[in-house]
Amino acid sequence: MIKTDRVSLEAQLNQLSFLNLENDPYIAIIQEIDPVDPIDVYAHYNHKKGERFYWSNANGDTTFVGVGVCDELAVHATPQRFEAMQAEIDKRRQRIHVLGDEVDGTGPIYFGGFSFFNQPHKEEWQSFQENYFVLPKQLLTVKDGRYFVTCHMKLDEESTVANIKTFVEQQLREIDAVQPFRKQQSHRDAIRDPLTYVEWEQLIESAVAQIQSSPLDKVVLAREVEAIFDERIALEDVLHVLTDNQQHSYVFVMEQGEDAFIGASPERLVSVEQNIIYSACLAGTTSRGETLDEDDLKAWQLLHDEKNLEEHRYVVKMIEQAVQPLCDNLDVPDDPVIYPLTTIQHLYTPVKGELTKGVSLFDVLSVLHPTPALGGEPRQEAMAFIESNEPIERGWYAAPIGWFDRHLNGEFAVAIRSSLVSGQTARLFAGCGIVADSDAEAEYDETNLKLTPMLDALGGQQDGHDG
Ligand SMILES: C=C(O[C@H]1C=CC=C(C(=O)O)[C@@H]1O)C(=O)O
Ligand SMILES: [Mg+2]
After folding, report:
1. C-alpha 45: how far from chain center
2. Active site (annotated) includes residue 267
3. Which of 107, 160, 341, 363 sits 20 to 30 Å CA-CA off 193?
4. Complex prediction ipTM
5. Is 218 a catalytic residue?
């Protein structure tokens, strides 16, 4: 329901008659609304399958649910794809009229992702364009406990104030009609790992051999596991479990046609708000302990484990070197701390900087992707190794996923702990950082640890949210 103490829709729309609506401009109409559960909203729009997205950030202060397609930005695999994406949004920026209070996270928000390799997608990733962002027709924003709906429309010569009003009222009525969703049960039937353990062992051994005998220092290698269910996977159920169970994580879904990419990633790539930039070095992994003492011991061991510290140091060094030239001030602590997740813990070094005037979010993305937490070090050697040896198609896995607004504020996570869902089938991805003294079995166990939260969420292990 529209909050009555806000600017009335009528008053907002009256402003339209003063606008110069040439060149097919877009409008964004923002209304503050009463609280509503974002996952219920997501589930309500089941009839818009293929045109929905969901995002909540790791510190829980921002959630988006997007429905419908008002505008799309797509860039093919061109050499300067981040710059090309910025050029696309630059073309739109002056052409979007915003009515209402543009609180951070409301107004025109484009959501989407980039592919890991700058290459066209094949086979199972075909529904996803390589580098693609959508401006939804309707955006629900939950920001610092306040709730907003932004309706986006592309205007043409047929548009009138009356039909804009009808559109906005219709969207608000839909939100009013949202009911708590009823969860379904899906059961995991079969799990297929296309890569046998022996093949994994060979892959890791050849990476280690290459690291020991060439300039390659680190390479991140991933497995894909296929899980087949006895019915269609209900994304809202999976979302619900992920948001409940995966603390300190970015929870995301992007639907495209019949397919969806879903995950709960702990790893921020970059966020930009005004001129402040945050990034994160996250690499080096162990499990959580069963008891507090065991948990502390595992954390202490991780903080002192040379192999994991080495994995981590490549990431810190590269991010620092990449971002330094773009910043006036940069703060990178000397030593990592622990980043605790529900069943896993990582080594973590936060990065904070002040961007030099004129440097944009896309400039940062362009230098950061992929960090050695996803690709390796040196980047070119690692990418070449992955491309010729890893037997999976990465698609959007391990690549930047997130959002930006017309002021080029935004936030991107790296899409790990994720799964490509298609009907009754889910393909899950998990990788790990291989360095000179990596052991194939330990790395295999680490990927299993990283696969478990997604497998559990997909498998319908629930916590009693019955609607
Ligand atoms: C590549 C993944 O994790 C990265 C992020 C954190 C820790 C990692 C590690 O310890 O190997 C990986 O670099 C993944 O989960 O698929
Ligand atoms: Mg590791």
Report:
1. 21
2. yes
3. 341
4. 0.99
5. yes
- The 10s digit of each residue's pLDDT in 175-204 is 999 998 777 766 777 788 888 999 999 999
130, 118 contact by CB (below 8 A): yes
CA of 432 to the centre of ligand 1 (A): 5
Please spell the DSSP secondary structure of 64-114, one letter per residue.
EEEES-SEEEEE-S-TTHHHHHHHHHHHHHTTEEEES---TT-SSEEEEE-
The annotation places the binding site for Mg(2+) at 311, 446
- Given this model, what pLDDT does residue 240 score? 93
CATH topology of domain 188-259+266-458: Anthranilate synthase (3.60.120)
d(CA 419, CA 227): 10
32 to each of 9, 36, 54, 167, 180, how far by Cα in Å? 11, 11, 19, 16, 20
Atom of ligand 1 lying closest to residue 433 CA: 11
| Banded model confidence at residue 95, pLDDT cuts 50, 70, 90 | confident
Q: Which of 245, 256, 345 is CA-nearest to residue 294?
A: 345
Environment class of residue 191 by beta-carbon count within 10 Å: exposed (0-12), middle (13-18) or buried (19+)?
middle
Instruction: Tell me which of 137, 183, 218, 450 is the catalytic residue.
Output: 218
228 is written with which tokens?
Answer: 């087949």
Q: Report the C-alpha dihedral over residues 455, 458, 463, 467, rounded to 10 degrees.
A: 170
* Spans of all domains in the chain: 9-176, 188-259+266-458
* Atom 1 in ligand 1: residue holding the nearest Cα: 431
For residues 77-106, average pLDDT: 89
User: Could you identify the atom of ligand 1 that is nearest to the CA of residue 222?
Assistant: 16
Q: What SS3 string covers 405-425?
A: ECCCCEEEEECCCEEEEECCE
pTM of the model: 0.94
Nearest Cα to 100, choosing from 10, 199, 174? 10
